[in-house]
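For reproducibility, we list the full input for the zinc ion complex.
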Amino acid sequence: MYDLVFKDALIKDGFTSWEGDLAIQGEKIAAVGCGLSGKREVSVEGKWLIPGALDVHTHFSLPFAEAVSSDDFFTGTRAAAFGGVTTIIDFTAQNGEEGIRPGFQRRLALAEGKAVIDYGFHACMSRFTPEMERDLEWACGAGLTSLKVFTAYRKAGMMLNDGEIYTVLRRCRDLEMLTTFHAESGDVIERLIVEQAAGGRCDMLAHSASRPVFTETEAVRRVADLAEAAHASAYIVHLSCGNSTVRIAEARRRGVSILAETCPQYLFLDDSQFSGNNGHLFGSCPPIRPAGQEQGLWRGLEEGHIQVVATDHCPFMRAGKDTWHGDFRNLPMGLPGIETLVPLILSESQRRTGSVDFAIRALSVNPAKIFGLYPRKGCLLPGSDADIVIYDPARTWTIAADKLHMNTDFSPYEGMPLTGKPIMTISRGDVLVEEDLFKGASGRGRFLVRSKPDLQSFLSRTLPLET
Ligand code: URP
Ligand code: ZN
Ligand code: ZN
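The corresponding predicted structure, in tokenized form, follows.
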């Protein structure tokens, strides 16, 4: 007799759907089949049973401009659980010339005792220093098997030059570590920001004008070329433009090992938001784009050129955003989104294509594979962690910030009607959320020592043959 059995679910693993039961024993999925019995049995007829989502791009308690992102590892992971996310990957932060270890210890101390769900970290390199280079091998062994670098944010001291990037790519290739990129043309953007300000323009339209679409496509193409030359893999975070998807597809067609993630803000919002009085609430880097760009992103997801949807969750209260005082150069950049990720993506995928298979792959299966967590996470196989979401596909509801659990007082998606909602979230066999009730506990989440991903096998199985 199993501990917990979900009966008569419509089970969806991102590839196929079937009706049946799923049994949990302790922290693991024990069986998937029919007629399973448990000490506790929950009938979920008419509901979907899906793998918990992995949000592999979060920024909890991140200092930015005058503010600090307003979700910590407790409030952020509790909101994640309400939204059907059962794993997050955040980032270490580098101070000065130091290596990866001190920044990792600081971030770990913030997460331990607070996180409700399991979590990992990407190592983050703002400056290419000897300490950093030395620590890369250590990071791999410690389960930080991906590295984040920036081709932008020069003024903030975070931008690597192309020579450094080429070196990092080769080093990560040798270590079988994945290099991930915030890909924007830092130098061009710095010039355009100065030009906008010189012309007396510091509003949100100037933010948009200083980061036009080509500043992403250029950086994506450059990263792809450098990765190709280095025979290394590259993963682009928060891809924001349909035009960039074309660059990714071109590179993949000639065999470059390049992967990409996009975010709900680029799939659902456009830069018309910047004209309103609250335009600054929508500020992020890269910015939300002219209407139409999102179509290429959706196509990229459906065709497999974009493999992951994550949030870049970096929330602020209105008061935090208001510290911009009318000048985008002072704006704390970033948007809340971890709790709305799964319902937004599943609702729209179902509406657009009549299927959520590719969306479940992008939310669960692919991030687990790409970031060294599969088959522990991201699937419904016996032996995997029992990270499961019960999802009501028929529930209609409207996004309203005051009904959500993220530590912020606005949602960029306020008023958006959705069909489908996570109604129960289970992490390693523990029911964390049931309807509107939180049943989890701070500090139960564990740090995940991630493996080196097998990207070649992942790519060979998921690369579309024709585009
Ligand atoms: O505006 C954003 N995206 N804020 C978070 C930091 C980053 O660049 O991902
Ligand atoms: Zn970024
Ligand atoms: Zn980010």
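Residues 182, 237-238 surround zinc ion (ligand 2) (CB under 6 Å). The mean pLDDT is 97. Both points were considered when choosing residues for closer inspection.
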